Amino acid sequence: MIDLSTKYMGFDLKNPIVPSSSPLMQDIDKVRRMEDDGAAAVVMDSLFEEQIKFEEAELYYFLEHGTESFAESLTYFPSGDDFYSGPELYLERIQKLKEAVSIPVIASMNGTDAEEWIKYAKLIEEAGADAIELNVYFLETGFNIAPGEVEKRYIEILKAVKSGVKIPVAVKLSPYFSAMASTAKELSDAGANALVLFNRFYQPDIDLANLEVVPNLVLSNSDEMCLPLRWIAIIYGNIKSSIAITSGVHTHEDIVKAIMAGADAVQMTSVLLQEGIDKIKSFLEELVRWMEEHEYESVDIMKGSLSQKACPDPAAFERANYMKTLRSYK
Ligand SMILES: Cc1cc2nc3c(=O)[nH]c(=O)nc-3n(C[C@H](O)[C@H](O)[C@H](O)COP(=O)(O)O)c2cc1C
C-alpha cells in the first residue's frame, strides 16, 4: 500500500495535491468535487487589498462627493459583481466552504499593506479558515527604493499577520529576489509556516492595433516548473517552513519531480482550468502507479531525494549548470 500522506504547514494531508488559488474556488460545488476527487486541501481565490480599499473608498466618496464622482473612480477597478461585493462576501464564502468540505480550507489574502491585513486576517480566522496564504503580489517600481526594502516589506506583512492570528500562515513568494535562499530563510525564521514558490506574475503586453497596454493572462505549461523546482531543491532541508510548489504542474511526472525536489504540497490551477477537476483523480492514480513501478513506498521517502543536499551533482542547481546547458545545444 503506497502512503501518499504528507505534512504541510502543520496539517496531516492525505496526499500532496492542493488546488491553488483560482476562480474555481468561488463555486462550492467545484470545491466539493475537488474533495471527492481526492484533493487534500484547497487554497481559496484571494481577497484583494483593493477590494477592501474599494469598500473604504466607496464610503468616502458617498460621504464627500455623492454617487457621481464615485462612478468615475470605478474605472480603476476590474469589472464583475464579485469584486465589488468585497470582504463581507469573502468571509461568508469561507464559512460556507467550511460547512461543505472537510479538507483544510486555506484562505488567501493578496496585497502589500501590513496595516490592512491584520484586521482582515483576524476576520478570516474567525470565519473558520484553517490557514492563510499571503500573496504579496508586489512589484517595486520606485527608483529610490534601496535593495532590501522589498524583502523588509514581506517580513513586515508576515509578522503583522502572524501577530494577529493563531492559524498557520503561508507566504506565496515572487521569484524576483536577488538572494532567494536568504529571503526564504528570513521568512521562515519570521514564522512563515509555509513558503509557496512561485507567484506567477502576469506581464502586460502592448496591443499594436489599439496602441494600448493590455493585460495578458496566459495559462502555464510544464516548462515553467523548472524555476520553482530549482529553488525548492536548494532551500529544502535548510528552512523550518513547509514548502509548496505552484507554477507549471501539469502531469503526474511533474508532481513526482516537485516532491523529489522537496515540496511538501503540490499546488495547481492551469491544468484544472484546462482539463477539468477530474484530473485530480487521475493524477492520484498515476502517482500511485508511478511510485509502485519505481518502488517508492511513500511520499516521505521520495521527498527531497533529488534536493540539492541529496543530489549526486549539487552543482547542477547552480552556475555550473548554466555552462553545461549552453554547451549542450546542438
Ligand atoms: C484565472 C486565475 C486566477 C488566479 N487567481 C489567483 C488569486 O486570486 N490569488 C493567487 O494567489 N493566485 C491566483 N492565481 C495563481 C494560481 O494560484 C497559481 O499560482 C498560478 O496559476 C500558477 O500555477 P499553475 O501553473 O498551476 O496555473 C490565479 C491563476 C489563474 C490562472
Descriptive report:
- The structure is a single chain.
- With 330 residues, the protein is an alpha/beta fold.
- It has a single domain (6-327), classed as Aldolase class I (TIM Barrel, Alpha-Beta Barrel).
- Helix content is 45%, strand content 15%.
- The protein has helices at 28-37, 49-64, 67-73, 81-100, 114-127, 149-164, 180-189, 226-235, 252-261, 270-275, 279-293, 299-302, 319-327, and strands spanning 6-8, 11-13, 17-19, 42-48, 105-110, 131-135, 169-173, 194-197, 205-207, 212-214, 242-245, 265-268.
- Helix 4 runs parallel beside helix 5, helix 5 packs parallel to helix 6 (149-164) and helix 9 (252-261) packs across helix 11.
- It starts with 5 loop residues before the first strand and ends with a helix.
- The relative contact order is 0.14.
- Flavin mononucleotide (FMN) binds at residues 20-23, 45-46, 108, 110, 135, 172, 200, 219-220, 246-249, 268-270.
Summarize the structure.
Helix content is 45%, strand content 15%. It has 13 helices and twelve strands.
Radius of gyration computed on alpha carbons: 21 Å
The shape, in one word, is: globular
CATH topology (level 3) name: TIM Barrel
Level-2 CATH architecture: Alpha-Beta Barrel
**What order do the helices and strands follow?**
EEEHEHHHEHEHEHEEEHEHEHHHH
Features:
330 residues; alpha/beta; 8-stranded parallel β-sheet; 13 helices; globular; binds flavin mononucleotide
